[in-house]
Amino acid sequence: MHLLDLPPELLTTLLAYLPARDLARVCQTCIFLRDLARTESLWQQRCRKEYKLKTNKNWNASYFEIYSKVLIKYGALLGAWKTTMNCYGGLFNVTYCLGQILVEEYFPTKCIFDSLKSIPWFSISLENGEATVKCLQGFDVPHPGDVKFDQEEVKDGKHTVTTNLICLSSHQEENEDSEEFQRWIEQEKVRGTIQELLEIKWQLTKEKKHQLQLSPLVLPPLTPDRIIQPGLFKGTYSAHGTELLMLSYSDETQEIHLTKITGDPNVPAGEISVYVDLRRPMILNREQQESLQTLKDIDTPDLPPEFDGTRNFSQPFIVPRQCEMEDCRDLPTFCKARYHSKGTIAAFGYQNPTFSNNHWIMISEDVFGVLWLDLYSFSLFNRIKEEFKTS
Ligand SMILES: [Zn+2]
Q1: pLDDT surpasses 80 at 91
Q2: How much distance in Å is there from the Cα of 169 to the middle of ligand 1?
Q3: To pair with 232 at 20 to 30 A between CA atoms, which of 44, 117, 276, 350?
Q4: Residues 331 and 295 in one domain
Q5: How far away, in angstroms, is 122 Cα from ligand 1 center?
Q6: pLDDT recorded at residue 311
Q7: How many domains does the chain have?
Q8: F-box domain: which residues (predicted)?
Q9: Considering the entire predicted model, what is its pTM?
């Protein structure tokens, strides 16, 4: 029996199992198979299964076109990314939006209890039957862009692979009086960064800001039996505004690490901001927390015999008067756990990084604080509720 003697429905089902490249080859062998291979339901299934595309609504194109023109080439972009191309870093998410693939930056606002804000950077859509990359930042938006996958680079002796989204238009250098600067500063202000530091950011990023160097965001898996689940958090960094961090566990050192997803000229994105020493829990009373000096003198206090370190231990919590700030006025008067920790501090340009002694204070599963004993400041962190799909 010849392949073509099979009923068309069965042939279509068989074709659905072929890898896309083989399917394309089959299409070249005969017109009958080519027509069968164009069956929409087959491509709809592929779009959904391989690239999670639920509908072709707003695309003005068939599933076959979306798959063969857009997804094969750009489908690998879907999901969450981060960048460390400059000290500021950033979190990016690539999703389907109204008949296109949209690359957006997500950033926190001054209040850590608000949701993240997003701004579009690039889009990929089908125009006149061809996939078209557009830059959505700068003047005369949109204008042409491009994607370069898996660019290899050796930087500081480290081998990195990034995907680059590039603007093909030449954005002129703009001065502080320009409309673009004003628009940019309005958009950036919501992060809570002070104006002087924003002006530095403009100077440091303006030439590169229409190019994105992305690497995949890998989130640590959820782990039962831990005092707090890993994940993404927003945290207050005084003059630098609100920053994004990833909480993960380091089993070798028995520490919690808070790694910067967004950073600043002092401690850049990609560096660890706080190391929580899980071997050094504390239980403090209210009086001990009233003055910073008393807190600084506390080494590892005696723990009650029933404390075994594996579960949380509710205890009084107050922010010492010298460190009080807006965000901590309505905090509860009890916390679930308290540990010695150390935090990275550095001069401008990440020069002479050293550690500041601090306390890590878990308030709930979603909220914790860091008391910077040497800096007289208190940072508050809140878990990010938005979901980011990672590979
Ligand atoms: Zn551009």
Answers
A1: yes
A2: 6
A3: 350
A4: yes
A5: 9
A6: 67
A7: 2
A8: 1-46
A9: 0.89
Q: Which residues contact 9 (CB under 8 A, 6 or more apart)?
A: none
Ligand 1 centroid to 368 CA: how many Å? 39
**Does any domain span residue 1?**
no
211 alpha carbon – ligand 1 mean position (Å): 8
Radius of gyration of the chain from Cα atoms?
A: 26
Whether residues 316 and 332 share a domain: the answer is: yes
Band the pLDDT of 174: cuts 50, 70, 90. low
Looking at the structure, do residues 232 and 208 belong to the same domain, yes or no?
no
Do 193 and 260 lie in one domain? The reply is no
Distance 140 CA to ligand 1 centre (A): 8
Closest by alpha carbon to 379, among 297, 226, 256, 274?
A: 274
pLDDT value, residue 75 = 94
Cα of 233 to ligand 1 centre, how many Å?
30
Distance 205 CA to ligand 1 centre (A): 14
Clarify whether residues 234 and 210 are in a common domain.
no
Residue 106 is encoded by which pair of tokens? 């997500």
The answer to whether residues 267 and 197 belong to one domain is no
Domain region containing 282: 221-383
269-304 tens-digit pLDDT = 999 999 999 988 989 999 999 888 889 888 776 677
pLDDT, residue 349, reads 93
pLDDT-above-90 percentage for the chain: 52
Per-residue model confidence (pLDDT) at position 33: 80
The predicted pLDDT at position 347 comes to 94
145/226 same-domain check = no
Q: Which of 215, 237, 269 corresponds to the end of one domain?
A: 215
Pair (168, 259) in one structural domain: no
DSSP 263: -
